[in-house]
Design brief:
- This protein is of the alpha/beta class.
- It has 14 helices and 25 strands.
- Helix 6 runs antiparallel to helix 7 and helix 7 crosses helix 8.
- The chain is globular and about 70 Å long.
Length: 505
């Protein structure tokens, strides 16, 4: 569609993008918008990842959309079930007709003279240009073409197969094989019990322990409520129950870390027995929720270890060998297959090159308004979910906030909306986009993410209950959002010389 202009373009047709499209269609059925998806299918993460046993690490009553009840009896769902849910949602809201597959956004240039974004899109190897008035980034936060993959000494010596979960070979045969999984995050703890069903033995090799939290994969209360109450009411009650539970656990971990540590480590000790070295393998040297807790449904990881089908080794890699991995302790792990569950490679804004009036935008130099709009970047909202709760809880709120902004612009006949620093914000200290989290995949990229300040609305708290007020109720005429009519385009020179006036609602 060379030269086509849309009201809104949504970038990404994963969980966030499909949800945002549903909100747009509900609020603005007449709106002209499109969804750009770089891959050939919708679903994002839940279509890309195909490794054995892939599942959610959050309950589906909060990972699902607030407007679309999750009715599967399993609250911790496998990847195919989640993909079905996304596709069903898209069908029910007639979203798929809006998706442009194999359209990968590479650059976005804003013109204040035109109040438009010009987007450079790669389609089947060719570059095209699209234009839109508003840009809603729902591209997720990791690279789809590759995962994080450190170089290992002696890797070329290994005579077996090395795979990364992000690109799991469909034909990989692990029957009666020795499998070593490097890593101890959500992917690793999912793979161990699943591969152990067919492998000779599965070893999870970790440099340091991770906190494990065990929950049943079914929510008994949710299933009872669904039998007794209308579907939507049952879902709403279950959703709020689980939100409160997530919030309680997180706040308890922050306020009483030693108590939560004793509970989590104590459960591992009860499951694995007094003879097992729980302190070495399941007692991290950081506090709970400084990194994300790993969910193990029905204690499946502990059950696999108890059965002898799987094991955990805490050590450092000295070198790959022809037949496995030599550890710094001198121990050798025999392996036919090595799985590098070493994490994701994070990208900022989907790796898109942004510019405003010809000037490149470095998001590391920008304060983030409510964590979703960037200082001096007009008509753009970015979705970044929760680290300490289900991703979709925040994605839903961001989509609703975007609709509020768009409705305000339509009602007021505004052509642009731009967060600006107030005079009182001039000396505001720049703080990391996320604080209190030490996960490697975050710390590796924190210097490239936007900044938060020390006051509203420049804060980015991981707080769903507070965010409901920030996104859904707080006034838009807050002295920060600068709404301008098309008849008064922003002059860049004027912006640099004086504080722009904020138009009242």
């Amino acid at each position: 569609m060379p030269g086509a202009t849309c009201d809104v373009i949504v970038v990404g047709a994963g969980l966030s993008g499909i949800g945002a499209a549903c909100h747009l269609l509900e609020q603005f059925p007449e709106m002209d918008f499109a969804i750009l998806e770089g891959r050939e299918r919708m679903g994002g993460t839940w279509d890309l990842f195909r490794y054995p046993g892939i599942r959610s690490d959050s309950d589906m009553h909060t990972l699902g959309y607030h407007f679309k009840p999750w009715t599967n009896p399993k609250a911790i769902a496998d990847g195919p079930a989640i993909l079905d849910y996304i596709e069903e949602t898209a069908r029910e809201h007639d979203v798929e007709s809006r998706i442009r597959y194999n359209h990968r956004l590479t650059a976005a240039a804003w013109s204040s003279a035109e109040n438009l974004w010009t987007l450079t899109v790669t389609v089947d190897g060719e570059q095209r240009e699209l234009r839109c008035r508003f840009l809603l980034m729902c591209a997720g936060y990791f690279r789809y073409d590759r995962g994080h993959r450190p170089d290992f000494p002696g890797e070329e010596l290994f005579g077996g197969t090395v795979v990364h979960p992000q690109h799991w070979p469909e034909e990989l045969d692990y029957d009666d094989r020795n499998v070593v999984i490097i890593g101890s995050g959500a992917t690793a703890v999912t793979l161990v019990p699943e591969l152990a069903k067919r492998a000779r033995h599965v070893t999870m090799l970790q440099r340091s322990p991770t906190y494990m939290i065990a929950f049943p994969d079914t929510d008994v209360i949710a299933n009872i409520l669904r039998m007794l109450l209308p579907e939507r009411l049952a879902y709403r009650l279950t959703r709020w129950k689980n939100i409160r539970l997530q919030t309680f656990i997180f706040k308890l971990a922050r306020n009483r870390p030693n108590l939560v540590r004793r509970f989590l480590v104590g459960h591992a000790r009860r499951m694995l027995g007094k003879q097992y070295d729980v302190d070495r393998h399941f007692n991290p040297d950081y506090n709970p929720w400084e990194q994300r807790l790993c969910l193990i449904p029905n204690d499946d990881l502990f059950e696999t270890i108890r059965s002898g089908e799987g094991s955990v080794v805490t050590d450092h890699i000295a070198s790959f060998t022809e037949s496995g991995i030599e550890l710094e302790s001198g121990e050798h792990l025999d392996a036919d297959i090595i799985v590098t569950a070493t994490g994701l490679e994070i990208v900022v804004m989907g790796g898109v090159a942004f510019s405003v009036d010809g000037e490149p935008v470095d998001f590391a130099d920008r304060f983030a308004y409510k964590g979703v709009m960037m200082r001096d970047v007009p008509n753009m909202i970015s979705t970044f979910g929760y680290i300490n709760a289900s991703w979709t809880l925040r994605a839903d709120l961001v989509a609703q906030f975007a609709c509020r902004v768009l409705d305000h612009m339509r009602t007021g006949d505004y052509a642009s909306c731009t967060p600006r620093l107030r005079a009182t914000d001039a000396d505001m200290p720049a703080r990391p986009y996320l604080t209190g989290f030490s996960s490697g995949y975050l710390t590796r990229v924190m210097h490239r993410l936007p900044r938060q300040g020390d006051r509203e609305p420049w804060l980015n708290p991981q707080d769903y209950l507070g965010d409901r007020e920030r996104f859904l109720e707080a006034p838009l005429d807050d002295g920060v959002l600068d709404f301008r009519a098309a008849a008064h385009p922003v002059d860049r020179q004027d912006v640099e010389q004086e504080e722009p006036a904020v138009l009242s609602v």
